Amino acid sequence: MKNKFRYLLLGMFSIFSFLISSAATIEKDLTYNKYTLKDTYKYGKITREFQWDKISRYLDRLDSFQGENIRFGTLKNYKNINGLPPVARQIAMEKYSDGSRPSVKDKFGNRRSQGIPLYIEGQMDRPERYAPDGSLISISSRDLENYKVKVEDIDGEWIVPARYVKEIQANNFPRVVVVDRKNQNIATLEKVGEVWKVRSMNPASTGLDRPPYQLPTPLGVFVVQGKKYKMEYLKDGSHTEIDGYAPYASRFSGGGYIHGVPVNLPRTEMIEYSPTLGTTPRSHMCVRNATSHAKYVYEWAETNKGLVIVIE
């Protein structure tokens, strides 16, 4: 009995050691020092935190993903520019009280609009599911019509029509922005040698789940798609009326940007900070930051090289 207990302990220790050894090493070395949050902090009666254990696992998985693959790309369908994908094998309809056209989702909750169809090899009649625009992929092979890819945050290997894939030159991704929807915070990390250095720890506000105009910030691993010094946005329900702008906007998925405090017209000058940052989700899908932190991300995370990881 004692021997069995000893072997059980040894087995548990081996598993624990494996988990520890497989986690990425994270150290603090801030290069942006405004509005810095502590590792754990209070929001009202709620204790919030930076989920370093979860972030470490994501970074370790990212390291493995980079080590196992040599060709990388991103999935592209911003504003359905490459075509509204076919209806997935299993779907759900989301209806809106304002009479807007219902939204189609796959069984995993991914939206058809601006989505990318993922097919099982040999079953090209209908996509199995969708992946979000901007997702990081590795490329296994391609023919004239399709790519075979792995999506970093989705298990399995998938067939994707070539028009939805953009190959990128980067073969490693040392700068990562991590957005935490649960805790409403944002951290930037940079890999230096074998260590991930924390460069900033700040409050942020993510997307509110109140469609059709406000959508939750999508979960996943995304490539920075592009940037706008001032990203103009429209008034809800309008296709033409500009309501204001968001400064230092870095797009990562669909209409989702990391940006500074929104400026509603008729005001035109930038706003540095809002007391609503880090409180509750309230954006239209984007990730709001202090404007100086948005500028930091804007200059620090390069297009097609920087990554944005959104966690819960």
UniProtKB/TrEMBL annotation:
GO terms, molecular function: transferase activity
Residue ranges of every copy of the L,D-TPase catalytic domain listed in the record: 175-312
Residues of the signal peptide: 1-23
Gene Ontology terms describing biological process: cell wall organization; peptidoglycan biosynthetic process; regulation of cell shape
Keywords: Cell shape, Cell wall biogenesis/degradation, Peptidoglycan synthesis, Signal, Transferase
A Pfam family hit: YkuD
The protein's annotated pathway: Cell wall biogenesis; peptidoglycan biosynthesis
Active site positions: H259 (proton donor/acceptor), C286 (nucleophile)
Top-rank taxon, per record: Bacteria
Listed name of the protein: L,D-TPase catalytic domain-containing protein
Phylogenetic lineage: Bacteria, Fusobacteriati, Fusobacteriota, Fusobacteriia, Fusobacteriales
